[in-house]
Request: fold
Amino acid sequence: MEAFLKDLPEWVLWVAKVAIIFGGLVGTAALMSLAERKVSAWMQYRHGPNRVGPFGLLQPLADGIKFIFKEELIPAGANKFLFRLAPALAAIPAMMTIAVIPIGTIQIGETEIPFSIAQLDLGIMYMLALGGLSVYGAILGGWASNSKYSLLGGLRASAQMISYELTLILSILVIVALSGSLDLGAIVTAQRENGLWNVFTPFGAVAFVLFTIASFAETNRHPFDFAECEPELVGGFHTEYSAMRFALFFLGEYCAMTVMACLNTTLFFGGPSVPFWPEAPWFLGILAFLLKAGFFLFLFIWVRWTLPRFRFDQLMRLGWKVALPIALANLLVVGAWVAFTTKGS
Reply:
């Protein structure tokens, strides 16, 4: 088997990893639509979907078929090109950012295969650059729909995502300063070599809390789901969408949630590192990564059905007057500490 792998062209392994990782991401996004309803039903003592397939497991497939066969409508007066483009801008950047997440390593004999699509020295920059494009999906979808509700939803979404993106970036920069690298693989390696995950360091703990809060706002999740606040905006920026274009917005949201969960795992919880077992087998490392990311996906649902929605002014006040100053102060302190310790050594 090892000799066979060595004889394989590199592009074959790359295509295989692309198919597995992207297929897993889309599959996870589909199952999250089921988990959303199942977990909420469990928390409210209901059954949730249980008619389609055993335990309702085929409900995402049924929903997908329904979306495919529904009629696609375009409002009168809408900008047809941008109206069609917006769902793709919401989904594609969220899906592409998974490419640099180091999920683990597959070992066959003496051959180690990194289980990630790309290993970039500037992986953090790649994720931030692509992730910042998702705001265009919301604002263009709202503006191109020629609807006041959609326009207000798009404006809310763009203001919210831009505000909390600053806190998100500053929290990530704290980890970059601690590890000395923009490579996500190097950040995982630094945590393994230090024997301490970043979340258990004073600066990392503050960054983790801020990152988690910002990730809820970045993905438009409750209690920050003002982009689609039903009592005020009917459905927000995707009010006028139907069929598969409507489904693409939700696919993008669940893909973004999955990527945020994976990034949280990588930056603060050692990625595929197994607790108290540095030399764990490779398959346990991948399993540990999936379990950690799964916890954060559960957290997204748990918070949605636990906390009430903020008011929009409370959201902006929290972002600009509380989260951003704390994130900036944390970064300045950790920068001074790293500079001092480096100079001392």
Remarks:
- The chain has a mean pLDDT of 86.
- Residues 10-43 form the longest helix (34 residues).
- Residues 2-344 form one domain.
